[in-house]
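FAQ

Q: What does a record look like?
A: Structure on top, sequence underneath. For example:
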């Protein structure tokens, strides 16, 4: 018996079936509720007992109609399979993505109507092509779920016959930075009388997450490339990997003797040298102090601009084959983030920036916000990875916040760390200090 249940569970998981265990009725007639059905049935029985035949027949008709409506709605959502294809992990603002939702009615009972309802993120980072304002009865539920109360998305399918499959394209447009999940998507269907509506959550295995990266701006990566080149004088920061031979070429008088391919020379071939694969021994690691943009007067617009500059530099450095890492202080989502260049791709760093939200401001005993609160970083991994990092870049709103940052001076020294401040780039101690906004192309030479 257990083996049979396990096989059925695997079959349901593979097929993306909607479960009926937690089906929720909404926007249904009160006549189809359990108390109303019981009351109508009792009244019909009493009418028949006291000889009121016509009234009893009328009440019994209402009872059968409402009961059939409720049963029809429950059976309509059974054996409905859903597949989502074409999902993308992340995109930049302004880009569009199209998903295809495949719905299959796996039973003989046809579906008179079908609707895919999907609440949107509160930030409206992704907006579907087909959207509307929520109905009044939907607003309270959206607020409890933490979804947007301004817009909701929906996709309708008019009629679905028995064992028929429908493909519903859903197009989204990325508007601003954020993360969106389809965990709140629901399937709505009901009876043909229009009395009962039932909704079921999206199967867990078909849920998707989408990240909208910070907006890209034109930036210059010269600062990071210059420091990386200076790490290995005369080699511009590039080293040769002697274990990987890319090709060979004819010997020139300026070539080093250690590059000569002696095996080919021993065979009587012309003198030639090995061309080895170039590698970057060390990369750059960004440390973003998001708490410095918070405080009594949060600088939200400046925070978004700083994240855009950082994301743009990550993309430019990736194109220049420079490995990058990222550390974020503990935000509203929970723990601090450390993503190192040897273990993480640029896409992982962009996803972390998309999901980052500064923590709520701390308050003292009188309920007053602490303006210069300390960010919480996971420092131990930073110490361990310091040897493999060419240079650290600590990003903060202004130099005034840096005095209370124990990470500077205790963990990060001026020899391997630069400070990037958003406001003005005022000097801070012996650290190389640069204005973050000066990295934009539009501010070059200003």
């Amino acid at each position: 018996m257990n083996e049979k249940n396990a096989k059925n569970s695997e079959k349901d998981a593979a097929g993306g079936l909607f479960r009926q265990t937690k089906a929720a009725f909404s926007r249904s007639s009160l006549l189809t509720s359990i108390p109303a059905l019981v009351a109508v049935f009792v009244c019909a029985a009493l009418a028949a007992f006291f000889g009121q035949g016509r009234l009893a027949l009328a009440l019994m008709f209402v009872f059968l109609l409402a009961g059939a409506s409720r049963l029809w709605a429950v059976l309509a959502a059974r054996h409905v399979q859903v597949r989502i294809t074409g999902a993308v992990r992340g995109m930049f603002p302004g880009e569009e993505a199209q998903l295809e939702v495949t719905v299959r009615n796996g039973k003989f009972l046809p579906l008179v109507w079908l609707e895919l309802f999907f609440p949107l993120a509160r930030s409206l980072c992704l907006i579907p092509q087909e959207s509307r304002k929520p109905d009044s009865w939907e607003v309270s539920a959206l607020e409890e779920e933490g979804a947007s109360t301004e817009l909701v998305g929906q996709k309708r399918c008019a009629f679905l016959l028995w064992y028929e499959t429908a493909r519903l394209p859903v197009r989204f447009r990325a508007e601003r930075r954020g993360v969106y999940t389809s965990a709140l998507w629901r399937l709505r269907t009901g009876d043909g009388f229009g009395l009962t509506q039932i909704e079921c959550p999206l199967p867990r295995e078909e849920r998707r997450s989408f990240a909208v990266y910070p907006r890209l701006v034109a930036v210059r990566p010269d600062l990071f490339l210059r420091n990386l080149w200076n790490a290995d004088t005369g080699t511009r920061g590039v080293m040769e990997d002697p274990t990987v031979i890319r090709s060979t070429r004819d010997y020139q008088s300026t070539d080093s003797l250690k590059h000569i391919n002696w095996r080919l020379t021993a065979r009587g071939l012309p003198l030639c040298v090995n061309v080895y694969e170039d590698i970057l021994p060390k990369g750059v690691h960004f440390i973003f102090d998001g708490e410095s943009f918070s405080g009594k007067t949060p600088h939200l617009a400046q925070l978004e601009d700083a994240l855009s500059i950082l994301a743009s530099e990550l993309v430019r450095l990736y194109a220049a084959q420079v490995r990058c890492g990222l550390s974020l202080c503990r935000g509203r989502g929970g723990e601090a983030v450390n993503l190192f260049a040897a273990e993480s791709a640029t896409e992982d760093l962009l996803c972390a920036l998309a999901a980052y939200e500064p923590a709520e401001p701390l308050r003292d005993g009188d309920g007053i916000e602490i303006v210069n609160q300390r960010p919480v970083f996971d420092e131990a991994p930073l110490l361990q990875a310091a040897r493999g990092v060419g240079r650290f870049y600590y990003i903060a709103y202004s130099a005034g916040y840096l005095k209370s940052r124990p990470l500077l001076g205790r963990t990060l020294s001026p020899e391997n760390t630069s400070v990037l401040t958003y406001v003005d780039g005022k000097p801070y101690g012996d650290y190389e200090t640069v204005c973050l906004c000066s990295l934009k192309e539009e501010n070059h030479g200003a």
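Q: Is there anything notable about this one?
A: Residues 1-23, 231-238 have pLDDT under 50 and may be disordered.
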